[in-house]
């Protein structure tokens, strides 16, 4: 049981919102870790972010509301995946260029 | 006569600042028009931006302070050029992916 949290459709995704979402190093870390295996669903606590819970939640919400990640609310945890097909359809090459521009994340 | 306005070195450029600078449609329009001919130097008034002068100045300053454009102050006008070699060295493919993600600008 669970629910997908609200998100923009592919057509509703805006480059303004995506670039703003990716202009933060915590959020780029999340994207880079998801991009390393696009089939994976990761919990918000699995990214090694040294942030208070409320702050962490804020970052995931910004990514979801921009259309970068999709979130499944499983009740006791949220599972995150990268919207790689939607990103590639709307902004080809963009998330790859951004992920590649930073040192490899362990 | 004139002066180059202050700007970050290539090493000082940050992905945070570049992505934040490019998260605005006016600033992406400037970058797209400069990217169409990277040899050109264009005045701030030549981009067809429907903005008050102070607002226009703000956008060019954000681009310059992020390292995206270089500005030559010729006294009666500022000339702008894209720092294409620096962008490509630091963030390969990034500005091209961003420019390509939007409808062609006339």
TrEMBL record, chains A, B:
Superkingdom assignment: Bacteria
Keyword Metal-binding found: no
HTH arsR-type domain segment(s): 7-102
Protein's UniProt keywords contain DNA-binding: yes
Keyword set, alphabetical order: DNA-binding, Transcription, Transcription regulation
GO molecular-function terms, A-Z: DNA binding; DNA-binding transcription factor activity
InterPro entries (alphabetical): HTH_ArsR_DNA-bd_dom (IPR001845), HTH_MetalResp_TranReg (IPR051081), WH-like_DNA-bd_sf (IPR036388), WH_DNA-bd_sf (IPR036390)
Protein name: ArsR family transcriptional regulator
Species: Micromonospora kangleipakensis
């Amino acid at each position: 049981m669970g629910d997908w949290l609200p998100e923009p459709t592919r057509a509703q995704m805006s480059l303004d919102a995506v670039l703003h979402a990716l202009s933060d190093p915590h959020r780029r870390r999340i994207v880079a870790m998801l991009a390393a295996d696009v089939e994976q669903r990761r919990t918000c606590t699995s990214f090694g972010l040294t942030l208070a819970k409320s702050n962490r939640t804020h970052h995931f919400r910004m990514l979801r509301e921009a259309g970068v990640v999709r979130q499944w609310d499983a009740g006791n945890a949220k599972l995150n995946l990268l919207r790689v097909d939607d990103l590639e359809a709307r902004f080809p090459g963009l998330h790859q260029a951004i992920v590649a521009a930073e040192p490899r994340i362990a």
